[in-house]
From TrEMBL:
This is OsmC family protein. NCBIfam families: PRK10738.1 (NF008009). Pfam families: OsmC (PF02566). InterPro entries: KH_dom-like_a/b, OsmC/Ohr_fam, OsmC/Ohrsf. It comes from the Bacteria. It comes from Kineobactrum salinum.
């Protein structure tokens, strides 16, 4: 896996993934930025959410759950001192589907957290307290 981050000006950077996709990162105005892109630590948090969601959806599809929507709401706390690392991240999955089984969704979230999500496991190994929860928004088949 490869990526390139190129400085534009001030505290704005453009990141390009090895697959050719780009993203703008910028700082807040009080830190010399123009607020034209996500902050780098926000990007890290978004990456975590994407990595874990990828696992949860994949696991649910393998268990033949009819998922119609899935989102993960992430809340992170950071240290007050420099470096302002993440100290705690809570991931709350909201899964919507037809006749979803509670145990299947719970297991999918657990597998992501404990076995499959490289980002979550890496952050946990670095000392970030990771926690997870989930809720179902299921409806019966017509």
């Amino acid at each position: 896996m490869q990526a390139t981050v190129k400085w534009v000006d001030g505290v704005m950077f453009i990141g390009e993934s090895g697959s050719g996709h780009t993203v703008v990162m910028d700082g807040a105005p009080d830190h010399g930025g123009r607020n034209l892109g996500v902050r780098p630590m926000e990007m890290l948090l978004l990456g975590l959410g994407g990595c874990s969601s990828f696992d949860v959806i994949g696991t649910l599809k393998k268990s033949r759950q009819q998922v119609v929507d899935c989102r993960v709401e992430l809340k992170a706390e950071r240290a007050d001192a420099v470096p302002a690392v993440f100290t705690h991240i809570h991931m709350h999955f909201v899964v919507t589907g037809v006749d979803l089984k509670e145990k299947q969704v719970q297991r999918a979230v657990e597998l992501s957290a404990e076995k499959y999500c490289s980002a979550s496991i890496m952050l946990g190994a670095a000392g970030v307290k990771m926690s997870h929860s989930h809720e179902l928004q299921a409806f019966a088949a017509a």
